[in-house]
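Re: the request from the purification team.
They wanted to know what the chain is likely to look like in 3D before they choose a buffer screen. I agreed to run a prediction and write the result into the notebook, where they can find it.
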Amino acid sequence: MDTPIIQPRFKESPHFKNFWEKGNGKQLIDFSGAEVNFKDFDKFSHYFYHVDTVGDEVVRDVYFTKKFHEASREIEGYIRNGIFETDVPESVKKLFTQTQQVPEWLDYSLLKSGAELCMRSNLDSLISLRDYCLMGGYDYAYLNKPLTATEALKKGAVKRLSETLDFWVNVTRYDALELHAKGYEFAIKTRLIHSYARLSIKKHYRQWDTENWGEPINSWDMMATYIGFSLVFLHSLQKLGNTFSEEEEKGIFHLWKYVGYLLGVPENLLPDSKKQATEYFYLWTSVQPPSDKDSILLAHSLLNESIENPILKFKFQRENLRYLHICCTWFLLDEEVCKRLQIPEVSNRKLFPKTKIIINKIYDKLLSRHARIKKGNKGQMKVLEDYLKITKNSNFH
């Protein structure tokens, strides 16, 4: 089949224009100094039909030829120890040759700065990921189609959030992305999970509409996801009253560029700066329609996660946590997006985010950067530990 030719089909739609002329998109342009237009659209649009063929080959050669747990154990061995056997499939050699070849552009001091900002921002990092990056992502209907196709809703938001948190925390610590380190391991495993999901969708989900939705988990959608972890994440931290240095800002983009590289995303799709990221993001949003019924289901599943999650012992605590996340969602996302996702209206919704901004200003004056990094790392690790305890020792499936 010839690759379809895609156009910026939603560029005249109200949801696209409102986002970029009045909403968070306009804020991103102001934040980054981006110059948005469609002159580079064709340079990027074919990636809507481009996938990580190397990862796919590994899944076909390893995961589809043996039991899942055996395949996982084999891949884990290669990740942790390298490849010493001679009878390893060519696809596996290809994958590890690419991921173990450190690119010339990699700067370890920038990786460190990016990791430090993620840790220093403590719970604001987690609020940003959940209430802006993840929730905001649900407004892009086609981006979420793989979640629908793999029936991720049935798995439940607690488990899904736990997996996202596990990945994010493990790739954003000191030296996490060194060869054979834990973050490197998470990147390779996540890459193969994407390939496994993509091949399963292609095989079993007959309704997949490639022309409109792109290939499942395609390279352009992957770019948008990593712009969520970098540009959108930074914008959210700023909205919550956090400050960051130029070095930390560069570090965030560098960190996610390298994670994207390990995940098989083409290098020219991975932005180096907030200006570049905003310009790339603008093009991608022009092929995405607004929320649909699946988006609303995903959004409400995420909101109700606070109620379902037994980390907090009492019901009133869980309801209060849900209320705080709703307040942050209204504060961080456009009102129009919140209405489309049917986020509930709550009273005094600006109080908690505004309080956070004041606290962050006080923290900046009272605590040293080093103390905040240490405190933030401890806080994030505690949240992750709680999630893993719940999902590993319970009926969450």
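For the purification team: The mean pLDDT is 94.
Please add any questions underneath this entry.
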